[in-house]
């Protein structure tokens, strides 16, 4: 179970003069600080998939980075299976599998070596890593390229390897930041199937996306963030009800418009 | 920490660019450049020695001996010129290589004629052996004329020697060969080693900090269940290892190729000089490099992790390299010795200490103090690097 309460994070603006006119008008810019996340709360139970939606710059990635312990929140709390992420970041990291939106691989290592390295960092045994890689490579259809240097990989191969790397240690929760961005249809399907398999294994998943079709297909819950605030948090059906015709696109726009009022 | 170190080393040895600069350049490229330079210098010197020199002799009638010798000697070709010819123009137009002008007071009886001034007109700006080759002929005549004069004066051999050099000032050097050459070249050695250490560490440093950001691997690494300081130490060790290895490979390669390429006297000198430095001093020199490399590695990693991209990291490192020239140049400045305030200037003191070790005049207690202070600075910089690595505004700029 993942529970986030009243998360907030601000960043010092290095050079306010360099901000665009639109950025200068953002209400989150206060003095020399940009309040990327003002108040975000949501909860994901075992076996649930939560879709994190929001326009670009809404604060989704900052929220996920705080969840993953990469960033320290200024306010609020994050609990993962009763572990306080802020107080026990090292313990929390063992429970989290995180795929960042801008993830990359070590190009001079093979796909297998990339995954192995992170397994070792998680303190896994050699045999444990080997069997997990075997399992993941079958699930994500990676056998054909696993032992090639990752600098030769296509976008899809890279993303599959990154996902395998993120979950090599059998995490208790999985956080995926736009995992299907830039992927072709086949690779997207493999990633979505993988999320489905996580759901079956009762692993809670949070994934941010701009593809509402993926939300419809996979999500049990939806959270919409805009201007650093969670504007909606509820079940998929409750989210659909935001629009008169039950259309996700309409529901999304209606939620954003309500937030602006 | 070792896990990070081993992974970074694995990546490092698979990087063609790093391998090229760390191994191929010092082992092959630099000695190849040196070899080519030596080859061309040697060829040019041989050519200058064997070249047939066109010359004109003015006033040859006053020195028939010289005239005859020059005609007899191989490698000289006589050219006749007008009496009022413009010497400079003749040389410029390459009609002649030189003109030898014998004065009218030249005589075989020097006791009567006194000293004669023979002028050698030539363009001496380029590589040539004209003076030496002409001087060989003139010198033979000088000996002959001197001998004749001494015979006329009925001087004994001892008297002749005393007349030629009435007083000899003999220099009795208390410095041995090692100290002598150590003073001359000892300042250059730390300069080269420092630069090589820095250069060897720069590529991996840029890759291990800014490279992680650019590839998008940093964030994944940061959320691994490993303490930040262990991450930093793993990366720091890799950079320091690369710097030291690069310097060792380069120095070993230069020494070996130097021995191979140098000839005759040079071999004897190099071997004698190198063998005069004890193995303990070599080990101490290497030990002194350890905190220096640690300083470089800490600064480079801090700069690299601050940079947003590989390119930005390299621009910071270029500036750092220029700044580092200052303490190293100070150590080579005349009058700067390992005394007083200079013993406390970071890096300058290590460079001076290495010079003293090469000379064999190092005070080992002072060496401990220098090692300690340098190690302290390195520890401080490493602590800063760890602190730096924990700053969100640095990691997520």
From TrEMBL, chain A:
A Pfam family recorded for this sequence: ABC_tran
Gene Ontology terms, MF aspect: ATP binding; ATP hydrolysis activity
Ranges for domain ABC transporter: 2-252
Keywords: ATP-binding, Nodulation, Nucleotide-binding, Transport
Gene3D superfamilies per the UniProt record, alphabetical: P-loop containing nucleotide triphosphate hydrolases
Keyword tRNA processing belongs to the record: no
Family statement drawn from the similarity comment of this UniProt entry: Belongs to the ABC transporter superfamily.
Protein name as it appears in the record: Nod factor export ATP-binding protein I
TrEMBL record, chain B:
Lineage: Bacteria, Pseudomonadati, Pseudomonadota, Gammaproteobacteria, Alteromonadales
Domain ABC-2 type transporter transmembrane: 16-387
Membrane topology field: Multi-pass membrane protein
Transmembrane segment boundaries: 20-41, 236-261, 282-307, 313-333, 364-389
Keywords: Membrane, Transmembrane, Transmembrane helix
Record InterPro entries: ABC2_TM
GO molecular function: ABC-type transporter activity
Protein name: Sodium transport system permease protein
Keyword Ion transport carried by entry: no
Provenance organism: Aliiglaciecola lipolytica E3
One Pfam family this sequence matches: ABC2_membrane_3
Cell location: Membrane
GO cellular component: membrane
């Amino acid at each position: 179970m993942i529970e986030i309460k009243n998360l907030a994070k601000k960043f010092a603006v290095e050079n306010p003069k360099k901000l665009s006119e639109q950025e200068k008008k953002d209400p989150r810019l206060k003095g020399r600080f940009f309040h990327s996340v003002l108040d975000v709360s949501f909860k994901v139970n075992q076996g649930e998939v939560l879709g994190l939606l929001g326009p670009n710059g809404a604060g989704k990635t900052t929220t996920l980075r705080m969840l993953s312990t990469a960033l320290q929140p200024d306010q609020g709390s994050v609990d993962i299976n009763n572990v306080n992420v802020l107080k026990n970041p090292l313990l929390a990291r063992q429970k989290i599998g995180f795929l960042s939106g801008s993830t990359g691989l070590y190009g001079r290592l093979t796909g297998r070596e990339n995954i192995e390295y992170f397994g070792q960092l998680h303190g896994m045994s050699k045999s444990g890593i080997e069997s997990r890689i075997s399992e993941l490579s079958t699930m994500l259809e990676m056998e054909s390229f696993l032992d090639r240097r990752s600098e030769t990989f296509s976008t899809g191969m890279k993303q599959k390897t990154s996902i395998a790397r993120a979950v090599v240690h059998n995490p208790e929760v999985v956080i995926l930041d736009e995992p299907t961005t830039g992927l072709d249809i086949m690779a997207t399907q493999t990633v979505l199937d993988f999320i489905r398999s996580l759901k079956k294994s009762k692993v809670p998943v949070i994934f941010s996306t701009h593809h509402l079709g993926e939300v419809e297909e996979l999500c049990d819950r939806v959270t919409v963030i805009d201007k650093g605030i969670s504007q909606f948090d509820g079940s998929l059906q409750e989210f659909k009800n935001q629009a008169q015709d039950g259309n996700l696109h309409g529901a999304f726009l209606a939620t954003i418009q309500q937030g602006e009022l | 920490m070792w896990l990070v170190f081993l992974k970074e080393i694995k990546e490092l040895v698979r990087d063609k660019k790093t391998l090229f600069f760390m191994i191929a350049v010092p082992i092959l490229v630099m000695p190849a450049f040196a070899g080519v330079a030596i080859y061309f210098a040697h060829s040019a010197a041989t050519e200058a020695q064997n070249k047939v020199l066109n010359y004109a002799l003015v006033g040859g009638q006053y020195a028939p001996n010289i005239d005859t010798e020059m005609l007899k000697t191989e490698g000289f070709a006589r050219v006749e010129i007008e009496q009022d010819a413009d010497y400079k123009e003749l040389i410029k137009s390459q009609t002649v290589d030189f003109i030898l002008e014998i004065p009218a007071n030249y005589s075989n009886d020097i006791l009567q004629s006194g000293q004669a001034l023979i002028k050698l007109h030539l363009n001496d700006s380029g590589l040539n052996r004209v003076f030496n080759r002409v001087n060989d002929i003139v010198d033979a005549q000088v000996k002959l004329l001197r001998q004749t004069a001494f015979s006329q004066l009925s001087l004994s051999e001892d008297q002749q020697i005393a007349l030629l050099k009435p007083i000899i000032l003999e220099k009795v050097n208390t410095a041995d060969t090692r100290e002598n050459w150590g003073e001359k070249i000892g300042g250059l050695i730390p300069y080269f080693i420092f630069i090589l250490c820095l250069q060897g560490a720069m590529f991996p440093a840029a890759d291990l900090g800014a490279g992680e950001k650019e590839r998008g691997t940093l964030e994944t690494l940061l959320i691994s269940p490993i303490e930040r300081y262990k991450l930093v130490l793993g990366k720091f060790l890799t950079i320091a290892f690369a710097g030291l290895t690069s310097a060792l490979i380069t120095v070993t390669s230069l020494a070996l190729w130097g021995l191979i390429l140098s000839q005759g006297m040079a071999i004897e000198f190099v071997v004698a000089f190198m063998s005069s430095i004890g193995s303990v001093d070599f080990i101490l020199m290497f030990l002194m490099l350890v905190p220096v490399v640690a300083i470089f590695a800490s600064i480079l990693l801090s700069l690299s992790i601050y940079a947003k991209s590989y390119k930005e990291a390299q621009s910071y490192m270029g500036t750092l390299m220029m700044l580092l020239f200052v303490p190293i140049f100070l150590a080579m400045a005349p009058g700067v010795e390992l005394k007083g305030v200079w013993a406390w200037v970071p890096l300058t003191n290590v460079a001076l200490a290495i010079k003293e070790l090469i000379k064999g005049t190092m005070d080992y207690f002072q060496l401990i103090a220098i090692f300690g202070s340098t190690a302290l600075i390195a520890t401080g910089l490493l602590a800063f690097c760890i602190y730096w690595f924990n700053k969100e505004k640095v990691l997520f700029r």
